[in-house]
Amino acid sequence: MQIQIDDEVIMSLLQQVLESLFRRRAAAHLDVQVGPAVDVFTHKSRRVRVWRYLMSVELKATEQVPLTVTPKDRKGNAAKIDGQPAWQIDNADVADLSLSDDGTTCTVKAKKVGTARVSVEVDADLGPDVQTLGGFIDVSVVPGAAVNVEINTGTPEPQPE
């Protein structure tokens, strides 16, 4: 059985939880992983950044994939950001990041089998303040197709009689 909950319901519940935390004097900043909505809540001048879970992607060790940041407002319209996005990868042994000149696109190039998380942060405040929004994508690198076969020898030994 699968239950789908409307994004507005999720964000409303999240806002209630956050307001409850702030009433109890919780930390001033809280990162929350939700999807697919993105929002920044302000409660009594405390900013809360909310992360958007983008998805996951599986790459063969011989593949690469482009990723693009597309800032959107609450209604899904294209939005501006201040400065360039900041990209990071948590496991550079698994994949490399190659950034475009404007930073809005990066290419993830698989290196070896394993998992990594690519994250990006942007400043949504076009003025001197900073309002951080971010997202991440999990990358799984799997072996490519076999292209040859190795035959390995053991140590020579006498035959049984």
Please provide a written account of the structure.
By secondary structure, this protein is mainly β. The chain has a single domain, classed as Immunoglobulin-like. The chain is built from one helix and nine strands, in the order H-E-E-E-E-E-E-E-E-E. A hairpin with an 8-residue loop joins strand 8 and strand 9. It starts with 6 loop residues before the first helix and ends in a 19-residue tail after the last strand.
CATH architecture: Sandwich
Which residues sit in consecutive blocks of at least 5 with pLDDT less than 50? 24-44
- Total domain modules: 1
Using the CA coordinates, give the radius of gyration.
23 Å
User: Which CATH class?
Assistant: Mainly Beta
Q: Let me know the average pLDDT.
A: 76
The chain-level structural class is mainly beta
Beta content comes to 35-45%
- Span between termini: 65 Å
Number of strands: 9
Total helical segments: 1
Write a short abstract of this structure.
By secondary structure, the chain is mainly beta. Helices cover 11% and strands 42% of the residues.
Task: Describe this protein with a few key phrases.
161 residues, mainly beta, six-stranded mixed beta sheet, three-stranded antiparallel beta sheet, 11% helix
